[in-house]
Amino acid sequence: MSRRGGVRRGYIWGGVCALALIAVVGLRVWAAAQSATAVIADIRSVEALARDPERLLTEGAVSLASTRQHLAALRGDLWPLPAVGAWLGWLPGYGADLAALGPLLDASDHTLAATESMLVAAGPLAPTLRALDRAAVTAPELSQQLAAARPSLEHAQARAEQAMLIWEQIDPEALSPLIGPRVAQVRSLATLLPGAASLSIATIDLHASLAPLFPLLRAGDPAQLLAGDSATLTSLTRAAELLPLARASTERAADDLARAQLDGLPEGRQAQLLQLAELPGLYLAVISSLEVGQEVAAIVTPILAEQHGGRPLGAALASGLAARRAELDGARLRMGEVISAWEQVRADRLPQPLREAVEQMPARAAEAGELIELAQLLPGLLGAGGGRDYLVLALSGDELRPGGGFITSAGVLRLQDGRVAGLSLEDSGKISPRAGVASPYAPEPLGRYMQIYRWFLRDSNWSPDFPTSARMAGILYGLSGRTAPPDVAAINVVALQELLRVTGPVAVAGEADPISADTVVAFFERHHGLQNDNSAPVTALAQALLDRIERGDMALPALLKVAHQLLDQRHIQIAVAEPAAAEHLAGLGWDGAVRPGGRDFLMVVDANVGYTKANRNIRERLSYTVDLTDPMAPLASLAIGYTHTGTATGTCAELDAEPASYSSMLARCHRTYLRVLVPAASALLSAENGPSPGEWTWSGLPDDGMVSSGVGEAGASVFATYLALPPGAERTVALRYSLPLTVIEPMEGGYRYGLRIQKQAGREPIPIQIRLNLPPGASVVWASAGPARPGATTFELTTSLVRDLDLEIHIQAS
Asked: Per DSSP, what are the bridge partners of residue 807?
């Protein structure tokens, strides 16, 4: 064979091999193209399903399984390129794409597998979740289905974590423009998968921890958690055992979601995912609330079990709570963490109505914390370990006085280890200084408007600051020769009504029918006309009510809740001498003290100076406007409107001449000495009131209606005036005054405005409108209550003053 022939055959065989290689490569490329086309079609199919959640849940898993099969085929068709691609990164143009090919295929497979497992878990749950709205699924059925879904979710969680490890090694910006943006978007979505899987597991664990409590809450009454029987305690114990798992899975979900990357997603999708990212914080707040609730339940349940076994409630509480003081203190500290957890939840990112419920939770958690503190105080207040005496003042809100109402009767209540050891009340009019002892001079307005020149116990609560009134009551009670206890409590008819709603009707000596919340007012009115002794009906009813509470045949949670409400609203006031207890009550705002604070302050205080019961027929309304248009010169405008709803006719003098039956006293002319407490250093600029003729005053002397200025309780500035209002009449007192610069506080980018409005004790709720006029170009960015419309140049809040109102508003400057 010639050398030339050998070369020719070599070329021929080389050409044949090249053609064969080209053919093979072509076939592999064609197969890879087919597989890639199938994968792309599958992905588009899944994207279409994603726009229809119902189809996604029913068909998504099948589509993803098909996608994974085509992806596996693509990997086989591309072999060995995924394996050797890592060595081809040096090639210009598409070298980075080739180098990333293997990791992209691996990450995509794990991502698809995780998504498929999540849909496998979610598919069977979809009909169940839809049926929840129709109450067609029982809690055990839901629990069973959620437990069945957990293995698939755990598989999804593991595959999603594997995918994340690989995705983190891929830099989309290093890839070619052909695939880089698409990879960036897929990677962003893939970063959500671990969090979504973890959050789903956390949801299952949270539901499992709540499941033992569902039978107790079937009637929608959380008080059943404190039923005090063995079944309840078993359910609480089981729930407590499951909470650590729920907390651990929720904390993992929070960590996983924190790693999610949302930058490459559309804004609408980002907003949805931010809602998802807020759920772990919500779950943790719920878990923390349940943990503390179960701690408290574990404390209270044995006490209630004693009560159910026949021990009086007061005695069980006094000894049981005293023995668990350290545990209560721990629960109180933990409740502070609960409040913080709720405050950190961004309610504005949650959908309605969940947003509204979450917005209320910090306040509810704070109330729960106060209930725990009340439980801590109870042993001492109930006379545990030595007994406790109270000077009790019974108040009439129909004849409103600054300290809560006219003192109709007073006396000593002795509590010994939770039991009523003694109760003696007397008509306040019969408590006067013993012979040879002079009373101090009465406050000047009592002499001017009521011709009362000496100070007696019945008028002792002239100060709206209850600790001050309590001290004065003790002094004046002691002048009579009686021994005045250092602790003082005041209670009015509203408090008796609300307590009777909890205890139910009580049998009162001498009464044919039990006295209920609906009949107690008529009971007092009837006895007012039958005898000249205000203490007799109060003593009889108080004794019956205390006996019922001591026996404890009512729900303790309801009793504690109403006690908290009455203390908050100042229908019950307590001032104690023991420093630690006094500090505790002051911290809760339950001692009735006037506390202006360091910012804006408002307290409207009325004193009935007309010897009538007309306050029941008076409707009062407040309108308060703060002008901050010049932050260096804040101004306030206050309008106090009065309407007398009585229907009697004639002048005040003619009405005063009628017989003093209770109904006639309700219908009489209303005379009030008005005081308005505002921040120290406020200056009155103008006032509108109007004169009262002589027949409209008890003394017969006309009053010019001028408004005086002075210093009031706790150093507050006070504006005072007199007005009289015949039945059917209306009147408005308007004040305009400057405010100190301390009402606003500079903050980054603007100002912080704070306002405290304090409610007068014994007063019914008052409608109030609050308006804030902002500096030019400024806008409200946040408010602790009421609407805060972004960009608004004013803030307006209409509410009812049921209890003290603390308001804080953040203002962004121009």
From this structure: 755
